[in-house]
Amino acid sequence: MRILIAEDDPSIAAGILYALKTLNHFAVDLVSDGARADGVLHDDVYDLLILDLGLPKLDGFQVLQRLRSRNAGLPVIIMSARGGDEDKVRGLDLGADDYIVKPFGVRELEARVRALLRRTVNCASGQISRAGLCFDMTSRTATLDGRALNLSAREAAVLEVLMREFGRVVRKERLIEQLYSYDETPGVNAIEVFIHRLRKKLALAPVEVRTFYGVGYQLDHREIA
Hints:
The protein is of the alpha/beta class. The chain has helices at residues 10-23, 34-43, 60-69, 85-93, 106-120, 153-164, 172-179, 190-201, and strands at 2-6, 27-31, 48-52, 76-80, 98-101, 127-130, 133-136, 141-144, 147-149, 170-171, 207-212, 216-221. The protein has a 5-stranded parallel sheet with strand order 2-1-3-4-5, with helices on both faces. The chain has a 4-stranded antiparallel sheet with strand order 6-7-8-9, with helices on one face. Strands 10-12-11 form a 3-stranded antiparallel sheet. Helix 1 crosses helix 5, helix 2 (34-43) packs parallel to helix 3 (60-69) and helix 6 packs across helix 8 (190-201).
């Protein structure tokens, strides 16, 4: 999962960044003004936007309005010290999916993020299951026939993307976008390493990861020889 935070208060931004990136292992990018947010949203692909209203250059309402004018269905959580009904109604009417009033607890924001991401994949239980393989989006853990798989945070992120796109080929570039923030530089063969490790851990599973050279990877039912 790749998340963009648009927040100009360094202390608030740092707390959210720590919670989502360090504790929950999401790929998270941070911008501190509305013009930058608008540009990044135009050029890059994200799974969620956490948007402050009081941004310089372009305020949060303007960023949201421009985003929706491009017919972008990106889920958006507004966070703001403005707790009045007028601002909440305006934000939701412009296309926000949720509105949280500052100050708020980080755990509440984490829960709202998880709930919204579950809705975007039509998974009310918070779990994705395919042929005995189950991925829990809340704990970010996986089991195979009820037995826990020992996955690193990056391996879990790769598996989540492949399970969400089960049966479809996922471009290598998309996996990189989902795993790394734009200030991180992955190793040349980082994705190949994670795929290799996943294959070993799924060796006894009824599903397999296939490579489409020059294109990407696919998780699908294992072919019977």
